[in-house]
Amino acid sequence: MLDVVISSLVPVMLLIAIGCAVGRWQWVSPGGAQELSRLAFSVFGPALLFRTMCHVDPHTLVLQPLAVYLLSAMGLYWAMWWCWGRNLAAAMWAMATMFSNTVALGIPLVGYVYGPPGLVVLFTLISVHSLVLVTMITVHLEWQRAQTPQTQSGLASPAALWPTLTLALRQSIFHPVPLPILLGLAFTQTGWSIPEALDRPLQWLGAAFGPMALLLVGINLAQVWRSSASANDKPQPWRKPMELTLLKNLVFPICVGAVGSAMGLQGLPWAVMVLAAALPVGANVFLVSQRYELEREAITLGMSISTLAGMLSLPVVMVLLQHWG
Q1: What is the CATH number of domain 2-324?
Q2: What Cα–Cα distance (Å) separates residue 303 from each residue in 101, 103, 224, 246, 273?
C-alpha cells in the first residue's frame, strides 16, 4: 500500500524539485516562466483534455461525487467567510480554503495514481469547478464591494453586478481548461473517431503537459521564495497562511470524504474527489486576489506554504484512501 503511494508521489516531487532548482538557479526568467506556462495551459493541456474526453461516453459519467465535492466546497466557503469576519478579506481567504490546484498538480498526480479512468473523473470536476465556484465567489465579492464604502475598502468603485457576472460566466466557459473538455464530450456524440494523423500529435502534446506543469510549479515556488527574500524589511503574516494550509490540505478533504461516505460513495470517483480536495491552493485564488487587490502578499505566501505542505499531507491522504477506498 505504502509502496503504491511512494511510487506515485516520487515522480511528482522529483519534477517539482527539478523545477525549484531551475527557478533557484534562474535558468528560466520570470518572463520565460510565464511564456512556458502559457504554452502548457494553452496547447499541451487542451490537447490532453480534448483527447481524453473524446473517448468518454457522457452517459457513463457519475455526477453524485461531483455534487458532493461542490456542496462541500460551498459549505466550507460560507462557514469560513462567517468565521473570519464576513467581509471582503474573509471572502478571499474563504475561497483559498476550498479552491484546489486541480490542473497543474491535480492532472499529473491523478494520472500517475489512477490512470485514464481517474482523469475522466477529474476532468468532469474541472469542467464545472471554475464555472460554479468562481462565478459564485465573483458574485459574492461584487455584492460585498457594493455594500462596502470606498473609503473603508480601499478598492476601486464596484463594477455593475450583471456585466461582471456575464463576464465571469463567459471567461469560465471560453477558457483553455473547460472548453476542450466540453468540445471533447460533444465530439463523442458524433460517433466519429479521431484520425490517426491528428490523434498522434494530440497524444504527444498531451503527454508533455504533466511534466511541464510540475516543473512550472517548482519554478514558480522558487520565484516566490526569491521575491520573499528580497522583501526582508516587511514582516510576513504567517498566522493566516498557516491556518489556510491546515484548512485546505486537511480539513477540506476530510469534509469531502465524510460527506461522500455519509452518502454511500466509494471506489474510484470518491477517491479522486477526496484527492482533488487535498491538493494545495489553486492559481485562480492568486488571480482573484490580484483582480480585487485583496490580501495579495499573504495569499501568495499561503499558496507557497500549502504547496510545500502538500508534499507531506498528500501521502497521508493517499494512504488513507488506499486503506478505506
Answers
A1: 1.20.1530.20
A2: 10, 15, 10, 12, 20
